[in-house]
Amino acid sequence: MTAHPFTATLLHWYDRHQRALPWRHSHDPYRIWLAEVIMQQTRISQGLPYYERFMAAYPTLADLAAAPLDEVLRLWQGLGYYSRARHLHKCAQVVWQEHRGHWPRTAAGLQQLPGIGPYTAAAIASQAFDEPVPVVDGNVYRVLARHFGLATPINTPAARQEFTTLSASLLDPAYPGDYNQALMEFGALQCTPRKPACDTCVLALSCVARQQSRQHELPVKAPARAIRQRYFTYLVAYHNGRLLMRQRPAGDIWQGLYEFVLIETGKKPELQKLAHPLLQQAARQQMEPIFYRHQLTHRILNVNFVAVSVSGPPQQVADLAGSGYKWFFYDEVEALPKPVLLARYLDTHFNSINLQEETK
Ligand code: SF4
Question: Exposed/middle/buried for 353, CB within 10 Å: 0-12, 13-18, 19+?
Fold first, then answer.
């Protein structure tokens, strides 16, 4: 079967312009899966060192399945979206234990695994097992919307169906993995969001957006969900070389990561008016709060950190702080999985001041 002219041109471009990436020509589902999970919502330049670190720490599926979750979360630290790391670990265990180390060979089978959605399933199935299934991600939406002049808002279920069907009809069944990677690579390097390089584009002659000068109108997006503001005050309680922390519960951001004593308020807090026994101690010590603003998907976190040197019996203080809080020595804290924001606070504001104070 002859490939569609769009596909033939795209594959030819890919042969000449693809970036050299460690998983690019692999048929190993473990490597492809690891790369896909790490690279989601992440630039290649940022994700690549993580991929290399994970491959060094866990060269095989068996190694990752046997690793403690805390260690995996720690290695993931800085990438954000920690639920992906938890799913990564769970998925390795399921494939290793329930599938005896054999990955399902189809996108439908792969989607039954933890944390694997349609995108990742199609990427693994097409690259590792040559299944002719299309991958549809942001790059694919952009290239197809522009080239074929499609104005369906891409953040709607109708668009998913429409673009998946179109991409399936263009896919070269002899090279499904290369076709998918070529389309994504073309979106990343040539048909980029803000400055598509139309003047040097091999698809320019057949591109509807270029003919109609609509490159910047396509793809269309329906209005985004409102961003929610949250207000956290962290009391960083320390006593005799230890910090008071707890593991965050399920059902919210940062599930399973460790945090300091948290007071969350519905609006910007007036610290002197918050009623918390530890905050009263902090006020007596005249500790200045350190403020961070931190953007997550659909949320902005406004976070105050207030360090407080605790007096009084440690267990009593832990009970006063709320349920689940425990004391950890500083070197234990270092090894605990934490939101990157808390790690940054500790590195830049806490260690230098408070450790010195305590050792005086
Ligand atoms: S001509 Fe421009 S808009 Fe069209 S596919 Fe090429 S880079 Fe994208």
Answer: exposed
Residue whose CB lies within 8 A of the most ligand 1 atoms, among 7, 9, 189, 210, for a mutation test: 210
Strands 242-247 and 228-239, by their bridges, are antiparallel
Strand, coil or helix: 296 = strand
- Asked if 288 is an active-site residue, the reply is no
**DSSP tag of 304:** E
pLDDT tens string 282-324: 767 777 789 999 988 788 999 999 988 888 788 888 888 888 9
Fold of 228-359: Nucleoside Triphosphate Pyrophosphohydrolase (3.90.79)
pTM value surpassing 0.85? no
Domains 5-135+163-188 and 228-359 share a fold: no
Pocket of ligand 1 (CB under 6 A): 143, 146-147, 190-191, 196-198, 201, 203-204, 207, 209-210, 215
DSSP per-residue letters across 6-60: HHHHHHHHHHHH----TTTT---HHHHHHHHHHHTTS-HHHHHHHHHHHHHH-SS
Max CA pair span of the chain: 79
